[in-house]
Amino acid sequence: MTGAAAATKPSRKEDLEEDKELQMELNLLVEKIIGPNEKLIPAALEMLKYLIRTSTTSMTSVPKPLKYLAPYYDQLKAFHKNVSKGNIKHSLADVISVLAIGTAGGEEAKKQRDCLKYCLMGTMRNIGDWGHEYIRQLESEIVEQLGLAHCEIGEHILQPLIKDILAFNCTHNAEIQACDLLMEIDCLPLLSEYINENTYQRICCYLTSCAKYTDKSERNEIMRLCYEEYIKFGEYVRSLIIGLQLNDDELIHNSFFRCKEKDVLNQLAFICARHLYPINVDSIEMNGYEDLTNILNNSFLSTFFLSLAKEFDVMEPKLPEDVYKTWLEPTSTKFHVLVENIDSAKQNLASTFVNGFVNAGFGCDKLMSNDAGNKWIYRNKEHGMLSATASLGLIFLWDVDGGLTPIDKYLYSHEDYIKSGALLALGLVNTRVRNECDPAFALLNEYVVSENEILQIGAILGIGIAYAGSYRDDILDLISAVLSNSCSLEVLGITSISCGLVSLGKPQTGIPSIILNTMIELNTKDPDNCKSIFMRLMALGLSLCYYGLRDDINVVSKTVEVFPEPLCSAAKNLLIMCAYAGSCDVLIIQELLKSLNDKTESSISTVQNKNIKQGKKSKKSSNEWDNLMGHALGALAVATISFGEEIGMEMVQRIFGHIGRYGEPSVRKTVPLAIALSSVSNPQLFVLDVLTKYSHDSDEDVACNALFGLGLIGCGTNNARLAANLRNLAVFHAKNPSQLFMVRIAQGLVHMGKGTITLNPMHTDRMLIDPVGMAGLIIITVALSDPHALILGKCHYLLYCISISIHPRWLLAVNQDLQITPVTVRVGQAVDVVGKAGSPKTITGIHTHSTPVLLAAGERAELATDQFQQCSPALDGICVLKEKQE
């Protein structure tokens, strides 16, 4: 150290002398305050206040004035008690209140809430001058005080103090503490007075993230406050997102009505189209914005997707063999020939699905197009023909104009299964797209009421997929009539699912009562009907009508108690699964996990008796009771409810590990599906490893579901590690037709859309969950809760319900004229910035690209140019950009 530096740095001896002087000065001031001369008290108090306010210290130590004044705390309190009312009493109360936050009063002062008590006795002026720690102590004591059963201090007395604290916090970058205080004391409406244009984004972002962990009433209060603030500051896109999260028609339409800017209106329409939310355009003042109708109808979806495919040069159709890559499998040629001959019909069916998945939306393939289609269809048997013909609907997905012609010729086939497949294909083509001509309804309605059950199945499922989330009364009237007239359980199950999809989240349509009455009649006619897997599908259709409605299922939950166990518990868990899907409701998850641990004596004894009689495991017949069916669906419900919240999903996956090891066989077979459901289109390594272990399980159902789960987590990603893993599993399961079928399906899912597609229903920077997309995943996973009864049996066509969850995983920039515009963007892993101070970076691991860009799960994009301004708060999906004015 140089001489100059040594001279400027204060020595330890000088510090001690300064501390001694400060201590003596404070002692003298206290003596004057409690002394007999009243004239000296005001000046001494003001000087004492000044020394406390201006003291500086490190973040880890107590300010020196508070430390040196601690021995006088009780004396000052006693003196204050004897002082008559006036300025001296108020000023002294301020000092005592500040001393109470330190060690002066000890634990007793904290128990008696002296800081708050003496603050209310004080001057109540400029409380922020005492610093952030003093404000925080006041906040904690206010919360404690108002939480008491017998509150001595009324809320009206605390109101002025609370407002002073809010004013201080909102002007000193402590908005998060202000939000926490008001949520604790249930006075959130007070916050709106203190929100300004500089703080509203930070406050609303924090509040919306907190709303996930509150009950329904508090959540609505928080979200509506944020909605009003966004509207006040002209953030119509953010306000629309709030409206969609609440599923409130009035709020959503209000965002459209208030917005007058064409670019922002188009952006609102793109978000609603992605969410499949039907907007009544006639009620909006269009002002020449005719593009809104086309956007809301998703008319641009096929055109934009094909432009993306051409940009990435992936238009060349692929064969199933290009996906399987059997030449890379570690086995000999002779063994391959042997494998191909095992259950060839099942493998042909697998190739049908793989061909549809890989070429989905591209409008061309090498298996079904032109004359090759007829040859391939007849290489399948009965229901296999249905699925083979229906695969054309996946290939021409979203292309209503181009897809009807190649499908139409199969409607004239003499084979009922081919004709039924064509009807289902017509529905698939119209998925997520609304057309003015309404071709799906025009072509399918006459077959819905057909006496031929095979044709009915294709038409009803097709119309349910085509109009999912549309809430159209004419559609519901058409298909609900089947519930009263049909005797086939299979038709009733498919019809219930279609009704549930069309009236998703809208029980007011009257569909729930129709389904319930039909189920009760079936149970009354023959109690064995409740053992059918299709009764479970009917319960699922009923549950879809209550999607996202949370506590509104209380009445219908009581109604389903008329059914015998285990259908009763299965129906209740399905209702909970759909009503709370994506809500992250911790209390509901805890209840479900508790029920998973409860094993009824009857179910255990039944299983034991079966094992004793049979001596070995046998395949369960379709007409046999599954006593733990409700528990199995409860595991799926846990995964569905926790969907969308990263910490919750991670915790749930750990719990599923225990259930997978020690659970009952009926519950274990749904564990791989539940794990996969919490990581859709996101092949995380630890999830991949867990599902790979389950895929080697001795239980055939567990292995099949684990293999499908591998396809679900890697869907549309082209993940090389997962693809290699599936090739090895194809060799391992070569002699087992069912497992090999699932391996092929998983391979098709991983390469779905040649790597341009996702099944993840979360969109708009993971702020929204597409209800129709989520419903598609729920249907598939529930169908796989008993894989051999449906997907591996004759109802494999239910796999096409996955089409309503398919969407491109793109970032596409369009200009004011809705023309695709290449823009430079930075893409990286999303960082959670909720509640963080300053302006933190929102992405990490940045790569620069030019749009269009494919976004993986958990990735976020930012504009890398100042030329354009985005209309959406998040660059995700189709984003409207407008040029900045110079």
Automatic annotation (TrEMBL):
InterPro entries: 26S_Psome_Rpn1, ARM-like, ARM-type_fold, Proteasome/cyclosome_rpt, RPN1_C, RPN1_N
Keyword Repeat: yes
Pfam families: PC_rep, RPN1_C, RPN1_RPN2_N
Taxonomic superkingdom: Eukaryota
Sorted UniProt keywords: Proteasome, Repeat
Gene3D superfamilies referenced in this protein's UniProt entry, alphabetically: Leucine-rich Repeat Variant (1.25.10.10)
GO molecular function, one term: enzyme regulator activity
Gene Ontology CC, one term: proteasome regulatory particle, base subcomplex
Keyword Repeat: yes
Domain 26S proteasome non-ATPase regulatory subunit RPN1 C-terminal residue range list: 834-885
Domain RPN1 N-terminal, residue spans: 26-329
Quaternary structure and partners: Component of the 19S proteasome regulatory particle complex. The 26S proteasome consists of a 20S core particle (CP) and two 19S regulatory subunits (RP). The regulatory particle is made of a lid composed of 9 subunits, a base containing 6 ATPases and few additional components including PSMD2. Interacts with RPGRIP1L. Interacts with CRY1 in a KDM8-dependent manner.
Role according to the record: Component of the 26S proteasome, a multiprotein complex involved in the ATP-dependent degradation of ubiquitinated proteins. This complex plays a key role in the maintenance of protein homeostasis by removing misfolded or damaged proteins, which could impair cellular functions, and by removing proteins whose functions are no longer required. Therefore, the proteasome participates in numerous cellular processes, including cell cycle progression, apoptosis, or DNA damage repair.
Family of the protein in this entry: Belongs to the proteasome subunit S2 family.
Name by which UniProt lists this protein: 26S proteasome non-ATPase regulatory subunit 2
Biological source species: Hypothenemus hampei (Coffee berry borer)
